[in-house]
């Protein structure tokens, strides 16, 4: 038993070192800078109070709004896809699945720049509209452009956990619901949706967190007209060199991340508890 514990600790050592260097220490420095008084070096809440100013709250609110909208769109697109992949044959379903995972295989900066070319004033969309005699549309440097970039880049993070959750549902349960007289809507609402809820929560968390904290997508597709909290943090660290305020803003985002993680953990524990009481 002692040898087994020793071997497990030895195998976990590389990850422990990596987590300490790239997770624990960065979080410690963020907390340290966010709560440190530059003049005295002591503890202060001044930087957190600065975050409560209207311009920062406005950027935070817009970031949460766009992240929620992007998460909802990803869920609406991913759920029917996963249902189709569950019913289709493996060869055809695999092809569709790979197409939706393509953004994961490419650099997100390159794909976002590609969307910048598509959505700009003289981009492919407006060129097509002009060719058919329709008026131009202004999409670049708007919240809509940012949402399009978020959905394209983060959709695979919704598809993966949702597909796993839906694919694990026993087909006999769905057939039993149909045999008992449930129509397709009742089968979806009372069988598929509750059983796939862990995948929905996991996928929503995996989309919402990067959508909330992104700054590359909003910088390229939103320009200077749409300012999200991620852009403000990036500017505070790289342009204004105000690490204290940037760390304080990062601490606010950490609260949202922790809440999402707790929600996912609570959902997983509830699902395990249900499985434990089944006969």
Automatic annotation (TrEMBL):
CDD domains: TM_PBP2. It comes from Selenomonas ruminantium. This is Spermidine/putrescine transport system permease protein. It is found in: Cell membrane. GO terms for biological process: transmembrane transport. Belongs to the binding-protein-dependent transport system permease family. CysTW subfamily. The lineage of its organism: Bacteria, Bacillati, Bacillota, Negativicutes, Selenomonadales. PROSITE patterns: ABC_TM1 (PS50928). It comes from the Bacteria. It is a multi-pass membrane protein. InterPro entries: MetI-like, MetI-like_sf. Keywords: Cell membrane, Membrane, Transmembrane, Transmembrane helix, Transport. SUPFAM superfamilies: MetI-like (SSF161098). One of its GO terms (cellular component) is plasma membrane. Residues 60-264 form the ABC transmembrane type-1 domain. The chain crosses the membrane at residues 12-32, 59-82, 94-118, 138-160, 199-223, 243-266.
